[in-house]
Amino acid sequence: MAATYETGGEYIKHHLVNLTYGQYPDGSWGFAQSAAEAKQMGFWAIHVDSMAWAIGLGALFVGLFARAAKRAHAGVPGGFQNFVEQIIEFIDNTVRDSFTHKNRIIAPLALCSFIWIFLMNLMDLVPVDWVPYLFSLIGVHYMKIVATTDPNVTMGMSLSVFAMMLYYSLKCKGVGGFLGELTLHPFTAKNIVVKVLLIPINFFLEAVALLAKPISHGLRLFGNLYAGEMIFILIALLPLWAQWTLSVPWAIFHVLVITLQAFIFMVLTVVYLNMAHDTAH
């Protein structure tokens, strides 16, 4: 596939463009036919490929685990049921170690985030040209199959976690407690005048720390997967013998990367929500 492009730069740019649906400058709606058109569509454009692959893999996760739950029995479990039970036990133990409060949705949320992100990351191991080539046969010129290489997806997930953080912070601490956490820490004083003078400093530091959580949460996942995808694209530009020589060991190493990134996102989600529930201060 790389040989069909005049330059390596064109090949790389093509593989980094999403299938984008949005509004043209003349007011009509449709799919962008180039990276420039996709950029002109602005904020309200939709990355159809990222949405489709993310939703599809989420549905696959729900279907597989629902199937395992329906077939679960008290006897000796089958291979897939045993695999699912081990994952659930692993997630449950991780949540118990990281979450010190009571909330029934935290463990299911952790399980969902880990498996869903892992499946999206796993698509990074599919050769970069296979799926785009198949879609090109039906007239679809752009197709990115790794949803976690799209910052819209990763930031959407991190902002959802951030919204839950704010909700549980207000629910558990109250408005006064939440505002006190933002304005009375980390610096405090017994003198009321000094305490008031420290409020702007505390608010600035705590606001920066609070807003940094969703930004780092989403961009960490995006950055690692984007870099991994870029390496696969660069390898695809090499001669065939070099592609096999480099892609196989990198793919083996990348299995660790995609698993680790899914685990980190899950753990940070649990830790952030545990902080939101914490009323010790």
Explain what you see:
This protein is mainly alpha-helical and 281 residues long. It has one domain (51-134, 148-277). Helix content is 70%, strand content 3%. The protein has helices at residues 8-15, 35-40, 48-70, 79-98, 106-122, 130-136, 151-183, 192-236, 240-277; strands spanning 20-23, 29-31, 46-47. The chain has a 3-stranded antiparallel sheet. Helix 7 (151-183) runs antiparallel to helix 8 and helix 8 packs antiparallel against helix 9 (240-277). The chain is globular and about 75 Å long.
Strand and helix map with partners:
Layout: H1 8-15, E1 20-23, E2 29-31, H2 35-40, E3 46-47, H3 48-70, H4 79-98, H5 106-122, H6 130-136, H7 151-183, H8 192-236, H9 240-277
Antiparallel strand pairs: 1-2, 1-3
Helix pairs in contact: 3-5, 4-5, 5-9, 7-8, 7-9, 8-9
